[in-house]
Amino acid sequence: MILEMDCGNSFIKWRVLDREAVLGSGIADSATELIAAVSDNHDLKITHCRMVSVRSDEETACLVAVLRAEFSVAVMCASPVRAVAGVTNGYEDFERLGLDRWLAVVGAFELSKGACLILDLGTAVTADFVAANGRHLGGFICPGLPLMRDQLRTHTRRIKYDDHSAEQALLSSTPGRTTVEAVERGCLLMLRGFVQTQLQLAHEYWGEEFEVFLTGGDADLVMSALPQAHLVKDLVFVGLATACPLS
Question: Quaternary structure per UniProt (predicted)?
């Protein structure tokens, strides 16, 4: 069984595969919590491990050491490269492109085998363009919904509301009649406007000959504006498996 991990700055997203079937998955706040979650499920016998980490080298090395000690397996770590699996990194300094973002690009091209637009909607929102020949053209980064709302809450004294109120406000898209409705729906419109701009640019590049991939925690919020898009929640893991094959 293969343990895969996407180690972000705040938490670790993980899943366990037996060939193509996902047997377990979750989100852990720490290495200790991750080990406990996997170990508590006695049906999960880890034989291989691969990961992508955007943490510091020291933090990543510590996590690798813990995994080796706990599961007695080698840990494959994704690393920056100029090209892999037919995709060429488009950054001037390829090592500066975030590894999780790079693997989402690799994963999308692996699935499409052609031109594609990758939209990752998380704390930050990223858009990346990959031509039919696998050349990464670059992309855009902007704040996602969590960052937008947190900035308004932090810097505007009269904007105060909880997360449940925010969720309820997004059940409609009519003009807001309360502060929480106005903020949440306004931020969502900004997010959808960003997405539509990326779609327009992709059409300018490739006409209709491209695919759109959505990933990230807030991807569901823009699905209605992109009916042709593929929603792939674990796109980074697709790229991780492509960049770090076990054979």
Answer: Homodimer.
Half-sphere CA count of 180, side-chain side, radius 13 A: 13
Q: Token pair for residue 60?
A: 């990543």
**Crossing angle between the packed helical segments 179-206 and 145-155, to the nearest 10 degrees:** 140
What are 212-222's pLDDT values in tens digits? 999 999 999 99
Residue 20's CB is within 10 A of a number of other CB atoms, namely 6
Positions at the binding site for substrate: 91, 98-101, 179
Decide if 29 is catalytic: no
Q: Considering only the C-alpha atoms of the chain, give the largest distance between any 2 of them, rounded to a whole number of Å.
A: 57
Q: Which residues are annotated as a binding site for ATP?
A: 6-13, 123
Residue type for 18, please? D
**Could you tell me the strand order of the sheet in which 124-130 lies?**
136-143, 124-130, 116-121, 211-215, 230-231
Q: Per the annotation, where are the binding residues for K(+)?
A: 120
**pTM for this model (two decimals):** 0.90
Set 29, 40, 57, 100: catalytic member: 100
